[in-house]
Design brief:
By secondary structure, the protein is an alpha+beta fold. The chain is built from two helices and seven strands; from the N terminus they run ββααβββββ.
Length: 114
């Protein structure tokens, strides 16, 4: 039976479990089993039309399922599925970036704000 690794931010929706064994012959079946056991996870993993959210990355034994057979990827007993949500962020104010311009004899570093 495959094991699904639950990332820390989603554990509050999985009964605080770090990993869950679910039946499934494919990644899609295993994920469907996961959300059947823990319905609160569904809105965090899937869009309203039932597609896996773009910021949710799923790995099968450290291989990105997007480069395998996606949700049709066949699973073997003992496979590990890892759910890895993308993380985005930044600073709250304007960011400063160093830009380098090179002339024939010298170079200058300017700070750009955007």
């Amino acid at each position: 039976m495959p094991q699904i690794q639950i990332p820390s931010p989603l554990r509050q929706y999985s009964g605080k479990q770090a990993s869950i064994h679910v039946p499934g012959k494919t990644v899609g079946e295993a994920l469907a089993g996961l959300v059947a056991q823990h319905p609160d996870l569904k809105r965090h993993l899937y869009t309203e039309d039932g597609k896996l959210r773009t910021f949710v990355n799923v790995y099968v034994n450290d291989e990105d399922m997007r480069y395998l057979e996606k949700e049709a990827t066949v699973l073997k007993d003992g496979d590990t599925i890892s759910i890895v949500p993308s993380i985005a962020g930044g600073c709250p104010g304007p960011r400063a970036v160093a830009a380098v311009s090179i002339s024939q004899s010298s170079f200058a570093v300017n700070r750009l704000k955007f």
